[in-house]
Amino acid sequence: MSDVRSRPILILAALLALAALTLLASPPAADAKAKTCAEQIVADWYGDGRVDKIFPLHCYQEAIRSLPVDVLDYSNAKEDILRALAYARQDEPDPGPGGSGPATRPSEEPPRTGPDSNQSDSDEETSASDAVDTSGPSSLPIPLLILGGLALLLLAAGGAGYLSRRAQARRGGDGPPGPV
Description:
mainly alpha
């Protein structure tokens, strides 16, 4: 009879011990949500392509090292963060890719005019940092159009072969004669 009375107490004690272990094992909520300075730089960059705040200088290199490979390959995150680092060294906020300043100002030559300028209208200088908008309807995916045309050509050839066999079967022919 004493075993039946002590069983609920043992279960309650085990549950309390499990709850205490769970509380001790989990990190505090504030520490779990706190981001490192490198993560803050990357999050700031994801917003608008520039780092708006000034962070400690070591955080910029850590942010570049923490970037995923696809972000490094398919975006200009590294260049943008390095530009923000250059401005942070001057204790200035990053104005963004179109901003003016020593880190982003291109070297410009005065335009040449006159008969010996050897410069035509088609030789305009373009900057490598100009953004190309490929999301609009004006940009045609040429490789996709070529593959689609090839697929349609192959479907047409297959359909012509199928119709040819059906026409031959209606005429009573079993196809071309085989070896004798």
